[in-house]
Design a protein that fits this description.
By secondary structure, the protein is mainly alpha-helical. The chain is 70% helix and 3% strand. A three-stranded antiparallel sheet has the order 2-1-3.
């Protein structure tokens, strides 16, 4: 058989590129493995979410029935839904844990400003992505949780009413709310999170990839070994997801009932610290209501987190310590409150 010269040249080019990739060196860092874990979990959520979306009906009258069909009649539907649920929890937990680890290791300097800022934005969208997915179960607790949280938005001066109407799609939580959350969960946040995630990985890789001549500082690992580690991480994640999904499968929740308010509305663990802080604020401070005070506090704290790289690069040492102590303190309170919520 005669070899076509063009094919031979193409094969050689592919071999060179593969060899070049595996000959690269990657700095050994926890962020490498955390990033790989997040990518794997994201792909798991996409695949399982795609499978669930083929049978899910985003309407108050059909959502619960379609969920019953997925859980009881669709082959392995209960397992797919459980894997999707626990993968989302793991994804959000690892995102928050990675940010905390970066903060404690002070990896937010100007050198790492892009990964730090994009990571903060991704964590916000990941939480929003999570809560839009929770409402799709159309359970009574989630229904009233969304009703409670969005109802408080009325207290924001001038724009609060319009934000509430935009989120709910009307005056009350109902059909429009469910369809909006479905679109946000499936399409909108996906279009935002994927480009941001790719940019985040690109920004992080700029600080990871080094040549053979740059291996003097820090420990390095070949890309080939890292690829093997990726397969090991994939196996471990799948094992954990399968184990948790089999022994702690998701159940069919109680159907949402606008006329039946639960005795206790359970707030999601990642939102609970903010809600707890909100309830501790007096109804009125001077001329400002509770929602306005809460909004100002959140904006100030968020601004501190986002501006931390610039504070560290341009201010005196004393201000750096104050800013860092505030960030560590806020983060510590968040973690303690989350743990307390999960142990209740």
């Amino acid at each position: 058989m005669t070899m076509i010269p063009g094919n031979s040249l193409l094969n050689n080019n592919i071999r060179k590129r593969v060899k070049s990739f595996f000959s690269q060196r990657v700095r050994v860092d926890l962020d490498n493995y955390v990033g790989i874990s997040l990518i794997i979990l994201f792909i798991v959520q996409l695949l399982t979410g795609l499978g669930l979306s083929l049978y899910y009906q985003p309407s108050p009258t059909e959502a619960h029935e379609s969920l019953k069909f997925i859980m009881n009649e669709l082959p392995f539907g209960w397992l797919i839904r459980s894997i999707h649920y626990w993968a989302a929890h793991m994804f959000l937990f690892i995102v928050l844990a990675q940010l905390i680890a970066k903060m404690l290791r002070r990896k937010f300097s100007m050198t790492y400003s892009n990964p730090w800022i994009v990571g903060l934005i991704l964590s916000i969208f990941a939480a929003a992505w999570f809560i839009t997915g929770e409402l799709l179960s159309w359970s009574n607790n989630i229904f009233w949780e969304v009703d409670l949280l969005t109802g408080e938005l009325n207290g924001i001066p001038f724009i609060g009413k319009y934000i509430r109407l935009f989120i709910r799609g009307g005056e009350a939580v109902g059909y429009s709310t469910l369809t909006r959350f479905y679109v946000f969960h499936i399409l909108f946040f996906l279009l935002i999170c994927v480009p941001l995630g790719i940019y985040h990985v690109y920004s992080a890789l700029k600080h990871r990839l080094v040549t053979f001549s740059e291996t003097r500082e820090g420990r390095v690992l070949s890309a080939y070994v890292l690829s093997i580690d990726t397969l090991i991480i994939m196996f471990l994640i799948f094992s954990v997801l399968m184990g948790v999904s089999v022994f702690l499968p998701r159940e069919i929740p109680e159907l949402a009932d606008p006329a039946k308010v639960p005795d206790v509305i359970s707030i999601s663990w990642y939102i609970y610290p903010f809600y707890k802080f909100y309830t501790l604020i007096p109804a009125k401070i001077l001329f400002l209501n509770r929602v306005t005070v809460f909004s100002i506090c959140i904006l100030v704290v968020a601004g501190l987190y986002f501006s931390l790289p610039y504070i560290y690069s341009s201010t005196r040492n004393a201000w750096k310590k104050v800013a860092y102590a505030c960030v560590v303190g806020f983060t510590g309170l968040y973690v303690i409150t989350v743990i307390w919520r999960l142990l209740r």
